[in-house]
């Protein structure tokens, strides 16, 4: 009993200080997540951790997701690793937990938004991108198919502004989610034009090891 209390005290003190905590119980022993501003409630921490552990279809750490830039619009390329995508998914679970006790105003200001996989307003003329952001994702309100959640990936070139890419998750059962993919804006489009806010699927490129 004394050991449990001491262990909990150490963990909570670490969380309160904003240090990183290795989430070894998910077997991501080489990933450290920053826990900032999420309180010192151990039960809350465990709930977030469980939500992440119970998220299926996560990308491999060494996978990459590439979002093309647009030199004409002054927008650079963005490339994210699977590990960075995993971290963003974790952050989305933490934000969802925080919003449970938030006011409507706070919820509205949050970067965590509903994702309903609407048809593109302006499909790409080359036929790429399909009719919807995620062709495989069903959002019809039936059990296991509610609106998903979107959470922004870091803008590496300017952390003070939103980046073009989002991670998408969907709760398929209470406490159980599936990572549906990464979507991003077409950066060649100009603000105010039709389809500027359309999202397009960003493919996962899995790491392959060359064999001699």
Automatic annotation (TrEMBL):
Biased composition (Basic and acidic residues): 108-125
Record has NADP as a keyword: no
Gene Ontology molecular-function annotations: hydrolase activity; RNA binding; RNA nuclease activity
Taxonomy, superkingdom: Eukaryota
This protein's UniProt keywords: Hydrolase, Nuclease, Signal
Residues of the signal peptide: 1-18
Region (Disordered) location: 59-80, 95-133
Tagged with keyword Nuclease: yes
Official protein name in the record: Uncharacterized protein
Organism: Pholiota conissans
Upper lineage: Eukaryota, Fungi, Dikarya, Basidiomycota, Agaricomycotina
């Amino acid at each position: 009993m004394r050991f449990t209390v001491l262990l909990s005290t150490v963990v909570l003190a670490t969380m309160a200080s904003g240090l990183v905590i290795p989430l070894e119980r998910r077997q991501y022993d080489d990933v450290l997540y920053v826990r900032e501003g999420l309180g010192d409630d151990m039960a809350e921490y465990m709930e977030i951790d469980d939500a992440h552990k119970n998220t299926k279809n996560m990308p491999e750490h060494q996978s990459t997701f590439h979002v093309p830039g647009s030199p004409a619009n002054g927008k650079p390329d963005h490339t994210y690793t699977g590990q960075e995508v995993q971290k963003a998914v974790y952050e989305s679970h933490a934000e969802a937990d925080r919003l449970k006790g938030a006011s409507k105003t706070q919820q509205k200001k949050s970067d965590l938004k509903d994702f309903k996989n609407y048809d593109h307003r302006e499909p790409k003329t080359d036929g790429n991108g399909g009719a919807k952001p995620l062709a495989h994702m069903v959002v019809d309100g039936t059990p296991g198919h509610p609106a998903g959640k979107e959470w922004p990936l870091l803008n590496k070139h300017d952390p003070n502004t939103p980046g073009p890419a989002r991670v998408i998750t969907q709760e398929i059962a209470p406490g159980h989610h599936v990572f549906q993919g990464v979507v991003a804006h077409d950066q060649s489009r100009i603000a105010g034009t039709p389809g500027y806010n359309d999202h397009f699927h960003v493919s996962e490129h899995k790491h392959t090891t060359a064999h001699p």
